[in-house]
Amino acid sequence: MGVGHLLLFDIDGTLLLRAAEAHKHALYEALAKVHHVGPDRIGEVPTAGRTDLEIARHLLLDAGVPPDRIDAHLDDVRDAACEAYARLCPPDLSDTVAPGMPELLAELRDRGDVGLALVTGNLEPIARLKLSRAGLGEFFPPGQGGFGSDDEDRTQLPAVARERAVDGNLAAFPRDRTIVIGDTPLDVLCARADGVHCIAITTGPHGADELAGADAVVGDARGVADALRQLGV
User: Fold this and answer.
1) Domain stops at, among 70, 88, 106
2) Which pTM value belongs to this model?
């Protein structure tokens, strides 16, 4: 990439707010299609910050599906969820964009010394379509980022994104110049697991006290910009 810093943005609760309803239904539809687990057998599990396949696994375990069957059909669930979301995704998600985020992303992109990519628990086709329908797809080039389709364990995703955003010597992008930006304790955890920086934003379901492990905790896009300056970006 040859840039000064790599910024890894989460999607739900960070770039977009209240844009997950069709996504949830697509995952439920996939579980019904692949495992014949209907809504009456689907319980409630925490979803914020988790990967799609981790959420699916917990829902299926709660419904009594054996772990070996879950493992054998993870790819089928992934494909079915992406197919369903392509049908269910609203044509326009622009009203879900977090205030100030388009301006912040444009400002960062236009600098030329910052790389923008995603680290999200969304399966990549879902993430790309969701951002495209929200009008933010142009900021995140293909071939970059880490997604729930890359690894079920979110803590592995920053490293995946750094490997894809190679530095000038074709090594993984350096940890000390990588920053995760997200809204959940699991965003903070995945950043710490890879030894990279983290800015947490309180636009999602978690308050500042729950995000205290980040380098900075902010309330909006302008706060992100201020925190980036404090981190030397």
Assistant:
1) 88
2) 0.94
